[in-house]
């Protein structure tokens, strides 16, 4: 593990920790927002903390805290759903994830999916013996769906 890096602080007296070349004031917020790139987002858009960071000119460098993390914390990866959300900003891509826009926004009426039948789970068996399930746009609303209860009878 690397030790923490030294900060780049140039204090001039005991009460002053760092010098800032261009501090942000209330009057400067509007101008800073005008310079920032426009945020492209839609329904449930991807967001990262990097999108909200301002320029760091004149600010002291941050300390490294990696040596304080245990192995479990270091091994953590971002959520795959959050990672996939970055593709939502591409025009024409609609996320079919739960809880996202109302079904009226989807340009589909139904989706047919071929799923494995009981005890036949290989790709070849699914191709030959799989069961086609139709998922309708308004199945839950019209109480036609069997949400949470998979049909294993093969009918």
UniProtKB/TrEMBL annotation:
Residues 47-81 are annotated as: Disordered. Residues 56-66 have a biased composition (Basic residues). InterPro entries: PyrdxlP-dep_Trfase_major (IPR015421). This is Uncharacterized protein. It comes from Lepraria neglecta. The lineage of its organism: Eukaryota, Fungi, Dikarya, Ascomycota, Pezizomycotina.
């Amino acid at each position: 593990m690397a030790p923490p890096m030294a900060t780049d602080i140039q204090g001039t007296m005991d009460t002053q920790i760092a010098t800032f070349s261009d501090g942000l004031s209330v009057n400067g917020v509007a101008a800073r927002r005008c310079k920032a790139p426009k945020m492209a987002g839609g329904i449930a858009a991807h967001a990262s903390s990097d999108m909200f960071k301002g320029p760091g000119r004149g600010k002291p460098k941050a300390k490294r805290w990696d040596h304080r993390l245990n192995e479990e914390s270091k091994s953590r990866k971002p959520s795959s759903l959050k990672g996939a959300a970055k593709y939502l900003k591409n025009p024409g891509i609609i996320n079919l994830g739960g809880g996202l826009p109302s079904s009226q926004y989807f340009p589909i009426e139904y989706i047919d999916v071929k799923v494995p039948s009981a005890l036949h789970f290989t790709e070849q068996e699914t191709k030959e013996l799989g069961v086609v399930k139709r998922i309708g746009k308004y199945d839950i609303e019209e109480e036609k769906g069997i949400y949470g209860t998979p049909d294993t009878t093969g009918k």
